[in-house]
Amino acid sequence: xxxxxxxxxxxxxxxxxxxxxxxxxxxxxxxxxxxxxxxxxxxxxxxxxxxxxxxxxxxxxxxxxxxxxxxxxxxxxxxxxxxxxxxxxxxxxxxxxxxxxxxxxxxxxxxxxxxxxxxxxxxxxxxxxxxxxxxxxxxxxxxxxxxxxxxxxxxxxxxxxxxxxxxxxxxxxxxxxxxxxxxxxxxxxxxxxxxxxxxxxxxxxxxxxxxxxxxxxxxxxxxxxxxxxxxxxxxxxxxxxxxxxxxxxxxxxxxxxxxxxxxxxxxxxxxxxxxxxxxxxxxxxxxxxxxxxxxxxxxxxxxxxxxxxxxxxxxxxxxxxxxxxxxxxxxxxxxxxxxxxxxxxxxxxxxxxxxxxx
Length: 358
Prior knowledge:
By secondary structure, this protein is of the alpha+beta class.
């Protein structure tokens, strides 16, 4: 079963003294190339904004390998950034608004452009594109729960939004955001994306905004539900749960079990509830179409993926990581607790959590 994991992590570059955004991505990227090696297959990429940068793991088969790649990527970026008098933090939204603008996005979408939103994107390999479309259908009902586990963007322009994931709210303003519609096959997916491109809604067929989609580069699926993870533990949790969901979907497809299409309004309600409340409030079951305790959805996710996680040897680790998250709260909750001591305390907390100590 082809289920290697690769994770893309988007980070903010900030002034280590004030938290203000630093537009130095090109300089950090150049410094990394000179002095900061990465594991084989891992890489660092630029983002459209010069205040953001991305680390990508190689294709990892085990949790240990994933930990190694994620840790190396974060330490590499931190070292290169320090050489340019800035710091790397993992937060879904910045602590302060940036004067920088993404002119390409503004040309296409006007003021709907997504600012400096940072996500954690998980890629999992599958045999072919037809399978990828079918797997994305199976993932749909669980995307809000992955989001709820990841909330790490409570602030907007220094103000508490009341949301766990304000990043999701920002990105919901894009056309075609949220959970993808059900597609019967790859041809149907390609046709719909082609229409969106022809209508001028998408820049090209590679840049859809759905929370899960077939990968545009290789046989696989890309899950984009999560805020960027404040800690390596939380990034690993997203990776392992996503692989568990993909492996479970592949098993179901082998048995002839097709996904149940979601009601679009219930799907949107489930995403909104996850962004608003995270792990602290009610959730929406998008299949049953009713409110449920968020803990029930997390338990259902673990039960749904349990056999797949056991098959890869990850079940005990996932339970441990979920336990840590339950005790310590989401990144959004930890940011809010730190904010009681001021904005600099939030910056300090994010800086410490983002880069693992040796």
